[in-house]
Specification:
- With 190 residues, this protein is of the alpha/beta class.
- It folds into two domains: 100 residues, no CATH class; 41 residues, no CATH class.
- It has three helices and 13 strands, in the order αββββββββββββααβ.
- Strands 1, 2, 3, 4, 5, 6, 7, 8, 9, 10, 11, 12 and 13 form a 13-stranded parallel beta sheet that branches.
Length: 190
């Protein structure tokens, strides 16, 4: 028995699932990031208002106040760096000033002084220089001198007491992250 042509046409138009769900597509702007490639060498001042990824070499100063600066595994920086957040996977020789966080990965190397609110140093990373961890609201000199006093106290502590020293530094308004196998080394400068 043959079906009328009209019924056949209607059955082809009707989908198997009458109410298919299609999730809404979220459209977001891609994260723009400036990149300095492996073969680039820059001597002078680098500044901007977008995140910066460095896989080449920079000598001078880097100022990216409101964003992140990432030094890649092939990156080599001989410069003072000022940024909201700094991630080091390569080599840096210079002072670092972060308004938020410094993250030194296991393959990273830093020779220079650091001023930041938070710091993370992975096992295997190399850090040589002074580290000052400041609290965001810490403005008066009394609180600053108390934090410095507590930061220098652990120089006399044994290895088993170092985690307690980290807790004491954290209670003074500092943020300290210790990873397994990490050691705290404090040097008093006169």
């Amino acid at each position: 028995m043959l079906q009328p042509a009209q019924n056949l046409a209607n059955s082809q138009k009707t989908p198997l699932n009458p109410n298919p769900y299609t999730p809404p597509k979220t459209i977001s702007a891609p994260m723009e990031q400036a990149t300095i490639g492996r073969s680039l060498v820059i001597k002078g001042e680098v500044s901007g208002s977008e995140p910066l990824y460095i896989d080449g070499r920079i000598e001078g100063t880097i100022t990216v106040t409101d964003n992140r600066v990432t030094i890649g595994r092939n990156g080599s920086v001989v410069a003072n760096v000022s940024a909201r957040e700094v991630v080091i996977m390569g080599n840096v020789k210079g002072n670092i000033q972060c308004t938020d966080r410094l993250d030194i990965r296991s393959e990273g190397s830093l020779t220079g002084d650091v001023v930041t609110q938070r710091i993370s140093v992975e096992d295997g990373a190399v850090v040589k220089g002074a580290v000052e961890v400041r609290h965001a609201a810490q403005k008066n000199e009394k609180a600053s001198s108390q934090a410095q006093t507590k930061a220098t106290e652990p120089a006399k502590l044994s290895t088993s007491e170092q985690p307690k020293a980290a807790v004491a530094a954290a209670s003074a308004g500092a943020s300290v992250s210790l990873l397994p196998g990490s050691k705290i080394v404090y040097e008093e400068s006169h």
